[in-house]
Design goal:
It is a single chain. Helix 2 crosses helix 9 and helix 3 packs across helix 10. This protein has a single domain, classed as Aldolase class I (TIM Barrel), CATH 3.20.20. By secondary structure, the chain is of the alpha/beta class. The chain is built from 14 helices and eight strands. Strands 1, 2, 3, 4, 5, 6, 7 and 8 form an eight-stranded parallel sheet that branches. Bound molecules: 5'-deoxyadenosine (5AD). 5'-deoxyadenosine binds next to loops.
C-alpha cells in the first residue's frame, strides 16, 4: 500500500509539477497503484469541490461547421451529414425544458457555423437572462473579440474553447488551416473579458504520447482554467481519423485524476465521450476527480445529427432518463446533486481545502 504516495504528494504540492513525474504517473500499470492515484484524486476533489455533482444542460443548436478537424464528424467535408440550425422557438422550448429540471447552467454549443449571427446569439443570451435564473456557457468556437465582448456584455458567463492538444505540432497536424497561436489569443481575450473559461483535451489522438498528455496537464495548470474537459477520442467514419483506434478509458481516467490533483479546484466533468466507450465510464470519472455531469437537452431529431463521434445509448438517453440515472449515481457514490449555478471556484473563498498534505504524513 501507498507505494506511490511520495510521488503523488510531490505532484500535489508542486507549484508546477515536473513533466517526468506526471509521465510516470500516467504510465502506472499496476491496479493497486492506479487505485491509489484514483483515491488520491477523489480526496482532492472532496477537499476542494465538496460532494456535489454539478449539473449542466447542453443544447447543440447548429451542426454546421466550416472547420476540417481530423477527428470530428461535423467536419465540413462530411457531406453525408444532414445539417441543421435550430430556430429561436425550438431553442427556447429546449431551454424551458432544461429549466424544468431545475438545472441552472445552459451550455449553448454549435459547430463553427459561419452563418451564426452575432446579434441572433446576443438576443438568445439576453432572452435567457431575462427569463431564467441561469448561467450561460457558450461553446461556438473562435470568433472575433467584438463578438466575444458583445456576448459577454449581454450576460454570457462562461466560454468553452478546448485546446484539444497543447502540443503545437500535434495541434497543427489535426487542425488544417487553424493556428495554435490564434487559439491561445482567443483564450486570452475571453479571459480579459471576464468569462469563466474552459479548456481540455482529447485522449488517444494519433501521434499523442504520455509526454504530450503530461504537457497538456501543465498547460491546464498554467492556464488556471475554471473548467477542464478530458475525454477519449472516438473515431468517426466520415472524418480523416476514420478507422483509428479509440482512446483508452484507463488512460483517460488517469489523465482526469492527475488533472484534478494538479489543478485542484477546476470544475471537471465526467465527459459525455467517457460514456461512449465499451461501457459508460462517467461513473468511474466521478470517482477519480470529476465533479460535473453534462446532460444533453438537444431535442430530436437534432441530437442524433450532432454527431461529433458515433453515439452510443448513453448519448441518446432522454433527459428524464438521465435524471434517474444521476440520482442513482449520486446515491451510490454517497454524493448529492448540486442544482446551483456552480460558478468557478477559482479565486473565491469557496475553496474548502485545508493546506495539508493528503493521505497522511
Ligand atoms: N472523439 C472525442 N471527442 C471529440 N470531440 C470532437 N470530436 C471528437 C471525437 N471524435 C470533442 C472535442 C470538442 C468537443 C465538443 O468534442 O474536444 O471540443
Amino acid at each position: 500500500m501507498f507505494k506511490i504516495k511520495g510521488l503523488l504528494n510531490r505532484v500535489y504540492a508542486a507549484r508546477l509539477p515536473s513533466i517526468e513525474d506526471l509521465e510516470q504517473i500516467l504510465s502506472l500499470q499496476k491496479d493497486e497503484e492506479i487505485e491509489e492515484l484514483f483515491a488520491f484524486a477523489d480526496k482532492v476533489r472532496k477537499d476542494f469541490c465538496g460532494d456535489g455533482i454539478i449539473l449542466r444542460g447542453i443544447i447543440e443548436f447548429s451542426n454546421f461547421c466550416f472547420r476540417e478537424c481530423s477527428y470530428c464528424g461535423l467536419n465540413k467535408g462530411n457531406h453525408k451529414l444532414e445539417r441543421y440550425r435550430m430556430d429561436k422557438g425550438e431553442l427556447f422550448k429546449a431551454i424551458e425544458y432544461l429549466a424544468s429540471f431545475n438545472i441552472k447552467t445552459v451550455v449553448l454549443q454549435s459547430g463553427e457555423d459561419e452563418r451564426l449571427d452575432v446579434l441572433w446569439l446576443t438576443d438568445v443570451i439576453k432572452g435567457i437572462k431575462s427569463r431564467f435564473d441561469m448561467a450561460v456557457t457558450l461553446s461556438v468556437g473562435e470568433r472575433s473579440a467584438d463578438d466575444y465582448r458583445l456576448w459577454r456584455q449581454s450576460g454570457a458567463d462562461r466560454y468553452l474553447l478546448k485546446i484539444e492538444s497543447s502540443d503545437a505540432a500535434l495541434y497543427a497536424s489535426m487542425h488544417p488551416k487553424m493556428d495554435f497561436g490564434k487559439r491561445l489569443d482567443r483564450l486570452g481575450i475571453l479571459r480579459k473579458l471576464g468569462y469563466q473559461i474552459g479548456s481540455g483535451n482529447i485522449i488517444g489522438l494519433p501521434g499523442q504520447t504520455l509526454k504530450t498528455i503530461a504537457r497538456d496537464i501543465i498547460f491546464f495548470k498554467r492556464g488556471d482554467f475554471d473548467m477542464i474537459g478530458i475525454g477519449p477520442f472516438i473515431p468517426h467514419q466520415y472524418s480523416r481519423f476514420a478507422g483509428l483506434k479509440e482512446g483508452d478509458a484507463r488512460i483517460s481516467l488517469k489523465a482526469l485524476a492527475l488533472t484534478r490533483i494538479v489543478t485542484k479546484d477546476a470544475h471537471i466533468p465526467a465527459t459525455t465521450a467517457l460514456g461512449n466507450l465499451d461501457k459508460d465510464y462517467r461513473r468511474d470519472g466521478l470517482k477519480c476527480g470529476a465533479n460535473v455531469l453534462m446532460l444533453n437537452f438537444t431535442p430530436q431529431p437534432y441530437r442524433r445529427l450532432y454527431e461529433i463521434y458515433p453515439h452510443k445509448e448513453a448519448v441518446n438517453e432522454p433527459a428524464d432518463f438521465c435524471n434517474s440515472y444521476i440520482d442513482n449515481i449520486a446515491k451510490d457514490l454517497g454524493r448529492f446533486i448540486d442544482y446551483s449555478k456552480a460558478d468557478s471556484l477559482k479565486g473565491t473563498d469557496l475553496r474548502l481545502a485545508q493546506e495539508t498534505s493528503l493521505v497522511g504524513g
